[in-house]
């Protein structure tokens, strides 16, 4: 455990991808919101990497840039 992660557990989201024909419909956002809302209580933070195209979505959802990845800290 650390000051950054008092629970000592880290969730990791990988490979969120939406077919080009279905992008900009909120599907990716819904998937990430679901994961954060349902699992943030179990971990101290959630980490992920993102393509350039996806970074703004994650920042809008509350993730913060740290080094070469994005992090969401448990707000509970």
TrEMBL record:
Domain N-acetyltransferase: 1-76
Top-level lineage group: Bacteria
Protein name, entry field: GNAT family N-acetyltransferase
CDD domains cross-referenced by the UniProt entry: NAT_SF (cd04301)
């Amino acid at each position: 455990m650390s000051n950054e992660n008092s629970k000592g557990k880290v969730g990791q989201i990988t490979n969120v991808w939406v077919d080009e024909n279905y992008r900009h419909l909120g599907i990716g956002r819904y998937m990430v919101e679901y994961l954060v809302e349902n699992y943030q209580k179990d971990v101290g933070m959630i980490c992920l990497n993102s393509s350039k195209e996806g970074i703004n979505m994650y920042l809008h959802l509350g993730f913060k840039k740290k080094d070469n990845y994005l992090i969401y800290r448990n707000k509970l």
